[in-house]
Amino acid sequence: MTSPLLHIATALALLGSGPGDARTYAGAAGNLTVATPVVDDADIHIDGRLDDAAWEHAAVLTSFTQYDPVEGVPASQKTEILVLVDDGAIYFGVRAFDDRADAIRATLAERDEFDRSDDYIRFVLDTFNDQRRAYVFSVNPLGVQGDGIWNEGGGGGRGHMGPPIDDNPDFLWESAGELGEWGYGVEVRIPLKSLRFPELESQSWGLQVMRKISRNGYQESWAPITNNVANQLTQAGKLTGLLNLNAGLFMEINPVLTGKRVGSYDDELATYLQDDPEADFGLNLTYGLTSNLTLDATYNPDFSQVEADAGQISVNERFALFFPEKRPFFLEGTEIFNLPKQLVYTRSIANPVGGVKMTGKVGSWNVGYLGAMDESFDADVDNTLANILRVRRDLGASSTLGMVYTDRTRHADDYNRLVGVDARLVLAQRYTLTFLGSTSLDAEPDSARSVGSLWSARMERAGREMSFSTEIEDSDHDFRAGSGFLRRTGDTQITSNLRLNRYGKQGGLVERWGPSLELQGYWDHDDFWAGRGMNEAQAQITTSISFRGNVSIWGTVQRNFFRFSDAEYEPFFVRDAQGALQPFLPDQGVFDGLYGASFNLFVNTFERVRGNVRYSWNSTPIFSSGVGMESALSRSGNLTLNLVATRSLGGEVGLRQTTITRKRDGSDYSSALIPRVKAQYQFSRALFVRGIFEYSFQKRDAPQDPASGRVLAYCSDGVCDDLVATESHDFHLEGLVSYEPSPGTVFYVGYTRQMEDLDPQDFHWRDLRNTASGLFAKVSYRFRF
């Protein structure tokens, strides 16, 4: 039986759709307000064929336009999107026509892993219609799913490229796709239980649909998109006439059972020891307090299904390396905890016993709370209680005002607390002003409490042909973000970026090109406010060219400057001819005239092989504890090839290499080489087997006094130790068989082994020693009520 709401929606469509079919909405013509067809029970079988009777009642979205690389021209291929709602879900149907159907790129891939290689359709649902946050559901021609959260102001996606989508959250929904001689068809069913939306009798949702054609890199959208507007969500269309939506009771229970057996090499016993097998149980609970507030709880959370972080070269790093969050419990609602600076970094909770989290939106307020007990890895150190509170209020059409509080407490006299406020103001649709102010209170046993501050301000201009940004960040030496991640504090930074774009004709040899200029300056916090000179500066000019056929080239030249104060060298000493320690006093600690250049080539033309190659050359200081010791020359290369043998078999081959050579005598200070091979066979959308091999060679000489060539010593608390050379030759092997029909429901078994080469000369790999290994298995099921 047809719902009366369908007749109401159809009547509204007749009033508002303009000439032609009352249910057809042409995006290029600005017909972006969709009167949503509603039926009691769509009874659609999700198979990608669009042959169910309910599709006859659907609204049809047509007339896409291209937004990348050429903006505003008609789409190169025809796309029709069908949309329909019933009592329990929203449905989308796709007819993606293609005059080169044999060139459509579609692989059986792991979830969220196809967007850089395959054709896809992306649905963006702004269920609160606030133009700040939206659900993202992507599907390739074979029905493989990708999903996440679009968070305006949250930065780009992977690698900070593209729209601000966090693709870590996973939702329960259905999809299927089918290839044909005319193109491909897709069907999608998104349950209302998988969405959060206002508790309103009548509501409208923002809606955008995008299509990517991977062979040429063309990106097209239903609602026209221009880069002259800072917030893409403000350019979306609308789904109207959504009445009395009710997700019903929403509760999920996710029990998890894991088992493992690990081993490691014992240096004292000079033997490899294997631990006894262990089994563990964990439980995750999710409860929908309302349609817009969610409570999550976890006991003994399991984070075993996390691929090892790819090896990173760290032979001459000044600051800590950043690793992204991958653990499921912490990823839900992560967009609420986003700030202009990373004052919240959930990987600071390293070993949680349990945790609780509440996230959602009440009126104009986004709210989030996260609490966890972080168990110490050292039995002699107390556990840490972590609490994070975040609220953010919508202002006007796209602006926000927020506050954050974090607390990491071990006991009464050992804690870190932080409070901060932030604002994001969008002006005239094109300009964005972002502010942050924060104060920290840090206490350690037997030490005085310290209070520190951090603030930043940023202005950005969005533009298709010209964009720019400028930012200042200032923090004093006592600022500590115990629950965050900041590469450096105690300094003042000013950065500016100007980018120009020029566009060719659609289908022309050169589709887009343009230069960009980036300037950076760093001062010690006290020096900046006293009017003294900067400690570090960089000027960089980059030119990029995008060619027809998905080929892009970047070329960069840069100049750097470093200056270190005498106080920074105080811990360093050098031994004289008699072995006595003498203060290390370099020539003024200034490194000027440092030049560099880099070249990057990205090719995505061929269906079976795609790749990226990068080479850089630059003069640099040799760093020890973040301080420059002497001048050197760095050469590094990075090669990545993505291989697609069949729709089911794919792989990745990577090679990274760096060599740093002293300028004074041409000797090598450090070198590193990391080849990595990854292969994966996908039996179905749910079942795959994967193997990873990585070899890491990293060698670093001890820092030396440039004048004498003697090794430096570092002194702290009256104890002086000579700095030592390091060398490692490590192998990492990883295998995984995984069956995951839906997020949270999974069975897998994996094995990993770490080895070192005891006789690394000439890379013969004759004498390998096991240093660690692990066999692990996991079974979990996601119950939804």
- CATH architectural category of the domain at 4-243: Sandwich
Strand residue percentage: over 45%
Q: Helix content range of the residues, please?
A: under 10%
Name the average pLDDT. 89
Number of strands: 46
Low-pLDDT residue spans = 1-20, 156-160, 305-315
Number of DSSP helical runs: 3
What name does CATH use for the topology of the domain at 4-243?
Immunoglobulin-like
Computed over alpha carbons, the radius of gyration is 28 Å
CATH class value of the domain at 4-243: Mainly Beta
Report the principal-axis shape: globular
Biggest pleated sheet = 24 strands, antiparallel, barrel
Q: Structural class of the helices, strands and pairings?
A: mainly beta
Tell me the distance between the termini: 26 Å
Question: What does this protein look like?
Answer:
With 785 residues, the chain is mainly β. The chain has a domain of 240 residues: Immunoglobulin-like (Sandwich), CATH 2.60.40.1190. The strands form 4 sheets. It has a 24-stranded antiparallel barrel. Strands 2, 4, 7, 8, 9, 10, 13, 14 and 15 form a 9-stranded mixed beta sheet that branches. Strands 1-3-5-6-12-11 form a 6-stranded mixed beta sheet, with no helix packed on it.
